[in-house]
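Hey, can you fold this one?
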Amino acid sequence: MTDNVMSKAATMEIPINSNGGTGALAEDDSLEQAAKLQWSLDEKDLQQVMVSGPNLNETSIVSGGYGGTAEGIIPTGSVKGPNMNHSTSSSSMTAEEATRGVAVEKYEAVKKWGLNTYKCTKQMISERFGRGSRTVDLELEAQIDVLRDTKRKYENVLRLAKALTNHFYNMVQTQHALGDTFADLSQKSPELRDEFGYNAETQKLLCKNGETLLGAINFFVSSINTLVNKTMEDTLMTIRMYENARLEFDAYRSDLEELSLGPRDAVTMARMEAAQEQFEVHKEKYERLRSDVTIKLKFLEENKVKVMHKQLLLFHNAISAYFAGNQQQLEETLKQFSIKLKPPGADKPSWLEEQ
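Sure. Predicted structure:
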């Protein structure tokens, strides 16, 4: 209908008057109405396309030119991308498989731990009741016993040295307070000014020498503490790992020996092969840790002799110089061992830190 109206409007004749203007004919109204009608139809078609346009999945692709046959038309609904449902199901299956894999790993780890714990407990009980055999390195066991006994004795030395430090610190604080009291009394008692003054100076000198000796003793205590609670403890930790490895080694060795005494069927042979593999693994671990313990014991002994030689010499020289009243020798002893004393009030926080 729109095409008919447009063709009619296009073929109308427009007469021209003598002045060159258009004539006021009735056809002008019909032409204007036809144009309005065409505009309203085009606008309605555009709105219809915008509101209820064709689905992209249903749009057809024409392989030929305009007005071609329908043989070259390919519906785009048949041309689709990757299957989203398939990818979603694949991702969910992957997540489930990963979760199942983690659960299986945890189950196997717990199973392995439980089996290992059972074997070690059985071996330990057998050893305590004298029914099972254990691997013994007599020389290494003797060195381990000596180390444990030495650690107990050094812990006692450390405890006594700390007690001496506390008592001596209290004595120095008492001397300091006593010196201040004597100095105050020397100012308030004119008849005993000299006597109180002498005693005040003596207590202050003793207090100063006592603080110097405390620096030496604290250094001694700190070095012994490092030797006992760090160096020796590190070696003993390796020894505990070695003892656990020894127990595991003997447990799997006993298990392999029991299987070797049984029947030689297919099931038993498979179990023997698995037990042999576990035995070799724990044997390698046991030998490696035994070598580590031997090396650490050797270095620990060398370090212990070196540290204690220095610390015992310091302790002897400092104590002797203090009780001999030789202040110069006491200070030289601290310089010899590179000990720096903290100035009075160094442990107290500054006014800025207290804010």
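The chain is about 75% helix and 0% strand. Let me know if you want another pass with a different chain boundary.
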